[in-house]
Amino acid sequence: MKKSVLLSVLLLLLLPRAGGADKFSVELEKILGQQVAFALTSGSGVDTDPLLADWVQKVGERVASVSPRRDILPNFTILGTDAANALAAPGGHIFVTRGLLDAIESDDELAVVLAHETGHHVKRHAYQQVQAQFLFLLGASFIQGKNSQQIRNGLVILNALRTLHKSREHEAQADELGIEFAAKTGYDPGGLIQFFDGFDNRKRSRLEEYFATHPSPEKRIHAAEKNPLVTRPTVEQREAMAEAFRERGLVHSARVVKQGKNPLELPPLPPTDTPERLKNEREEVLRLSEKIAKSLSPTVGSQKIGNVLQTLLLINSQGDLRWLYIASRAYTVQTQVEDLMARTSRVARTSPGTYDALMRYADLPPSHPAAQESVLGREEVLQALGRTEGATTPLLRASRAVTTVLIDLNNRFLRFGNEETWLRYGALEGLLRYAESEMARADKMSGIGWRYLAYARIRRYQERLSELIPENDIARRSLWYDLTQKRFGRAFDGTGRTGDVTVRAALAVELSEDPREVEMGRGGTTWADWVGEKDGIPENVATAIRLLTLDVEREIYFARRDGESYENS
Question: Are strands 75-79 and 86-89 parallel, antiparallel or unpaired?
Fold first, then answer.
């Protein structure tokens, strides 16, 4: 078949059309989506833990229920990566990473994130971009003549810039739809602002801003603040949202919504005074945390260069299968470095807060359960930092090795004969293998560090819940039981120390067991350690009880502020 005929056929097949013929593009979108989803899940794995997966599915289905698109219903999956991200692939595949869930502080924040991605799905943004790229590359292959290569290079540059600009436009559209979907389903659309406000909004360099595919958090916050659903909801809209909060068991937060105030406001942290005997220990926590953050700085710089070089590969791509193989390997390794860097950074960033929260119980009598958990948790924080510190050097080596490969792949002046090219590609392959070996070292150390910190965080929220909800306080106990049952989706035996019962309930959901069976054989083992011994996932248990604790703290804070109840908090 002649190229002109082939091009015409493909254009007819791929371009959206009116009427029933458009069903083909929907089927094609499903096929593309399956391929993209397979690539994503096979690369990072999927977290199917019901403790988090059921939560994401429930919130996702709720915000997607108001979507006008019904030909493909979205499905929601957790990617097992520590980098904080969310994305919508063609065919309704919406992904949120494990790292992003660890940064979320309310159901409302998760709702606006998933609603944003549902907005991408409604507008078919991912499919449009894949479609446009395919048609562009197909069309560029038809260019012939004396200066065809230069023309193609110029078109690749223009197409890359057009795609980046379109991506920014798509993000703005998805934010607007996300706010609308969240508000319609009773979530606070201000969760978008709360979510971005929680990130470190460091200024990007001009080059990063130029190649960025997403608007900066500052710009997205500014745009959201102009949306009346966020800043000026009507009385009817506030009432509908308040009713949804009441259904979630957040009665006092609902009152805040009706007053037009922020229901996601976090109460001030309890004051902490470092006991004299712990000052050296706390200084060591701060020293290690700052050291890790400082040691990661060169890796951050190397990754920034690598991200730009990945974009430039579009311009400098070669029709050589060996080049394409090395380029795809480099992309995969760079992504893995980004993932490990995110985990390492999270340990450094969250360790001091975890330590300080546990330190509050240090002066209780040694026989008190909270004092015992405090000792164990503080030691785990130090262990986490000590292990994670060892990951920074191999992580930097891996990042620099990949950056070197990307520099070489972009160097259009290195063009040799066939024999020399094989030697060059062999050297690049060796660099990538070296990067992978260094990553394996970094992964082992940061993984152990992250696990230690997860145990410490379980102890932190376990004791905070026990402090907030005394066993003999009927009103608070009722509040806690209702919120826990709603979050975990099942009833449970509520007798015992609040924090202990909460961990037991979370572990029972995770293992799909009866709470009474979960405790069999525990003996004197602490609940945090028991999670590990029962093959639970400490990181996920910590996330679940953290979200529950934040809900409880908000409710008590708002009630106390209004003088309604829980006056002893």
Answer: unpaired
Domain region containing 522: 469-569
Residue 489 region by backbone torsions, left for phi larger than 0, else alpha for psi between -120 and 50, else beta: left
The total number of structural domains that make up the chain: 3
Are the C-beta atoms of residues 191 and 168 closer than 8 Å to each other? no
Q: Measured between alpha carbons, how far is 225 from 108 in angstroms, rounded to an integer?
A: 16
pLDDT in tens, 214-238: 667 778 888 888 888 888 889 999 9
pLDDT in tens, 119-149: 999 988 776 776 666 655 555 555 556 555 5
How much is the average pLDDT of 456-479? 95
- Return d(Cα 565, Cα 569) in angstroms, integer: 9
Model pTM score: 0.88
- Alpha-carbon distance 202 to 212, whole Å? 14
pLDDT at position 494 is: 86
Do residue 535 and residue 446 come from a single domain?
no
Q: Are 445 and 390 in contact (CB under 8 A)?
A: yes
Residue 385 lies in a domain: yes
Q: Do residue 116 and residue 50 come from a single domain?
A: yes
Of 413, 438, 459, the one marking the end of a domain is: 459
- 202 and 280 share a domain? no
CB 194 within 8 A of CB 103: no
Q: What was the pLDDT predicted at 560?
A: 87
Q: Are both 491 and 364 inside the same structural domain?
A: no
Looking at the fold, whether 533 and 392 belong to one and the same domain comes out as no
Cβ(315)–Cβ(406) below 8 Å: no
Model confidence at 35, in pLDDT bands (50, 70, 90)? confident
Predicted confidence band at 536 (pLDDT cuts at 50, 70, 90)? very high
In 3D, which of 303, 278, 100, 120 has the Cα closest to residue 195? 100
Residues 323 and 228 in one domain: no
Are residue 292 and residue 170 in the same domain, yes or no? no
Q: At what angle do helices 474-488 and 538-562 cross, to 10 degrees?
A: 140
Residues 303 and 442 in one domain: yes
Cβ partners under 8 Å of residue 403, min gap 6 = 302, 305, 306, 309
